Amino acid sequence: MSEPKVKSSRLTFKGEQPKKKRKREDGDQGRPGGSKRKEDDKDPETWVLPEQPNEIRGPTFIVHPSDPSPICVTYNSTSNRVVLSSLDKSRADDSEDTAAEPPSLLQRTPTDVSQVWVITRVAGSPTINLRTGTGEGKFLSCDAHGLVAADRDARGPQEEWTPVILPDGMVAFMNVYEKYLSVDEVAGGALSLRGDSEEVGFRERFWIKIQYKYQKEAHEEEKQKKDGISDPLRIDEVSTNKIYQTWGMGRSVVSDQDKKDLKRARKEGRLAEAMLDRRAKLKSDRFC
């Protein structure tokens, strides 16, 4: 009787393609360029720290080094609210061995889909959008009063964030009002997110992790730019191109057919205006 297969615990996302395993060739370590081949063999789903702002894309894990327990920015799809949850509590819920030494903060990885945010951006834009990895895919927003929520179906100026990588590798998020996302303590000692901090301090600093394949994708794009190869404007492969959505401070991305229709409409409109002007002139000349 065959043994039952163990189910993989790796997080998967809707639309994700299964990766094919490649056999490692003998002698790779001894060949020139062996280190590059070793890097290529790295698991694409490995969680890594971004080194440049343009690497921040795809599934993202956002944590804050709070004391006594680090917290994670999560989304509760039942209440449709952003929640700051203790990583130690989620670890205790998932593991029976609570006496074991907890891993360091930088070794932590998400254990639930609610802890993952999907970051999208328009190629070349410094701003990003944070979409929930669970539920219906809501965008993280901040209004002029600093209130942070995740209840928007489309993105606009209030859903734009600019990631700033600090010298120690941590990240601050600046909104459209040039204020920073921060952890705030409310009544009863509960923690919540706000977006009205003027400066970056301890409360405004987050550790974030991305998947290695998106970091590699960003490096390839930078290499193409240096080589003089420019790609047309595109949306990241992890983003969902929905009707009536806008990117880049409300700038619409339309298809080639839409552009042709708009051009024809403008031409017809100018023609109609010219005809009306001509009729008005003839009518005016008739009574002169």
From TrEMBL:
Compartment annotation: Nucleus, Nucleolus
Superkingdom in the source lineage: Eukaryota
UniProt KW keywords: Nucleus
GO MF annotations in UniProt: actin filament binding
Listed GO CC annotations: catalytic step 2 spliceosome; nucleolus
Matching Gene3D superfamilies: 2.80.10.50
Bias kind Basic and acidic residues: ranges: 36-45
Record-linked InterPro entries: Actin-crosslinking, FRG1
Region (Disordered): 1-63, 88-107
Pfam families, A to Z: FRG1
UniProt record similarity statement: Belongs to the FRG1 family.
PANTHER family (alphabetical): FRG1 PROTEIN, FSHD REGION GENE 1
Protein name: Protein FRG1
Species of origin: Favolaschia claudopus
Organism lineage: Eukaryota, Fungi, Dikarya, Basidiomycota, Agaricomycotina
